[in-house]
Amino acid sequence: MRNWAFLGCLFACCLGLSAAGCGGDDGGSDKPTGGAAGKDSAAGGGGSEPVVDNPDEPNGECPLGDVGPQTGQYAPKGKCCYRTSNKARIKPDAATRTLEYRLNYFLLINQQKTIDRNILGSVTINRYDGEEQSILFRLTEPQANGKVVKGTGHSQIGGGRYNCDGTYSFYSDKAAPPDVGTKKIDRWSVAEFETQVDPDKKDQNMVRPTWEASLPVKNRPSSLPYLDDKFQLDWEGESQGFDIIEMPTGEENLDCIGSRKEAKWVPAGKTIAFGRVDLNDTDVIDQLGVNFCQLMAFGRLEGAADHKCQDTPRCEPGSKDCPWQRLPDSLCPVTDDEMKSWGCHLGYNDNPDNAPTVKTNCTKEPPKDINTDKGTSEGQCCDPLAKGTDGLPACNAWLQINEFVAAAVQITDKPTDNLQESCHGK
Question: Smallest Cα–Cα separation from 21: which of 418, 425, 407?
């Protein structure tokens, strides 16, 4: 059963934004804060002062198991089991407010041909319920008189960990080991980017980066660690092009985006990301004997390990002797020049798992002067069979759609340099 529990971790973060979440004694939780990057308590986060003014009582229905704390200021509360209230941190006389969330539920919903949600979904949920996976959001917004106003904000979204004391930390630019993966020591770190905030918009468009501001962040491949049952690094997953495509806003969603009802999570948001073929076709998952690309392409069936994605000729799934169960459907930039010009996008619209959530916005010929803020296409369409049909480039990535529940938490000033230890029994 433990192998299945580990495989459930593969769902995390559209492959790109997650890491197992709990901390040892490495300084990762030394200064709890809700401020933007912990720089200024006037940012609406409370600085290093402990937060005790939570509007809701502890919720005994939260799925804690033996992971604490289960009492006190960091006990899970409210309809989504938040640990620290965003509402309580907002200072009406401050120029900004900072909202911090941890995704308590995050599940891949569109890879059913190869990664079966019915079999592995409950295991994935259990990993998040046990604080073993953490995806963190930090959103700083301008405000006046305690209300959000139109202007410039800042966001950080990425993988982190639980510190076992009720707080969370992003990974630092020194956390990744230099001898595996892409070997870039800063590859687990989470970038901050500028956003445009408009309170008249009541969905994910309330806080959005401009196309120009988001392109370098989205095009930087995100590399995240996945751990074995001894909390040691087994492999790393890669993704590109993360975006939030559904997220309610407003005062009623400050502490909870989604809820927990009758022992089940009720998601209220959705994200997308893209898993590139080349970046996920090298690092073998030790306990499974396949890499993530093989899992997306060929599934869990016997013989999947015999096929490398990049070396296996593409064929129509379901045809005789064709090992492919699902072909890549998206196009991501790979070269430096490409990454300066366009971002990952869906380039083929006949994968039924994607509909109706995401549709293609691509053209047969490479479009010029791409800027989606101005209504242009996202880029060129692609050929999933890699046959050069209609002169199209080969699709080189899979679209991944996840749904989520986000709960208010407290993120520390200092990103953590180390992987977590188990928080069970603490």
Answer: 418
Q: What are phi and psi of 41, to 5 degrees?
A: -65, -25
Residue with tokens 């690309």: 293
Residues 269-306 pLDDT 10s: 999 999 999 999 988 888 778 898 998 999 877 788 89
Please tell me the predicted confidence (pLDDT) of residue 344.
Answer: 97
Pairing of strands 397-408, 96-108: antiparallel
Q: Report the DSSP beta bridge partners of residue 109.
A: none
User: What does the chain come to in residues?
Assistant: 426
β pairing state of 269-276 and 192-197: unpaired
Give residue-wise pLDDT tens across range 60-84.
889 977 888 988 889 999 999 999 9
Asked if residues 277 and 293 have their Cβ atoms less than 8 Å apart, the reply is: yes
> Is residue 8's pLDDT more than 50?
no
Q: Domain extents for the chain?
A: 2-259+406-412
The secondary structure of 340-398 as a DSSP string is: TT---EE-----GGGTTT----EESSPPSS--GGGT---EE--BTT-S-GGGPPBP-EE
Burial tier of 185 (Cβ tally within 10 Å: 0-12, 13-18, 19+): middle
Pick the closest to residue 114 from 271, 317, 311 (CA basis).
317
DSSP 117: H
Contact 60, 70 (CB under 8 A): no
Please say if the pLDDT value at position 212 is more than 60: yes
Instruction: Name the 3-class secondary structure at 252.
Output: helix
Give the number of other CB atoms < 10 A from CB of residue 259: 18
Average pLDDT over residues 167-172: 94
Using CA atoms, how far apart are residues 348 and 381, in angstroms rounded to an integer?
6
Smallest Cα–Cα separation from 343: which of 393, 378, 376, 392? 378
Q: What is the distance between the alpha carbons of residues 49 and 203, in angstroms, rounded to a whole number?
A: 31
Q: Specify the amino acid at residue 23.
A: G
The helix (run of H) or strand (run of E) holding residue 155 is strand 151-162
Say if CB 378 and CB 333 are below 8 A apart. Answer: no
Q: What is the mean pLDDT of residues 328-350?
A: 95
128: CB partners within 8 A, 6+ apart: 103, 104, 105, 106
pLDDT of residue 21: 30
State the pTM of this model: 0.85
3-class SS string, 8-66: HHHHHHHHCCCECCCCCCCCCCCCEECCHHHCCHHHCCCCCCCCCCCCCCECCCCCCCC
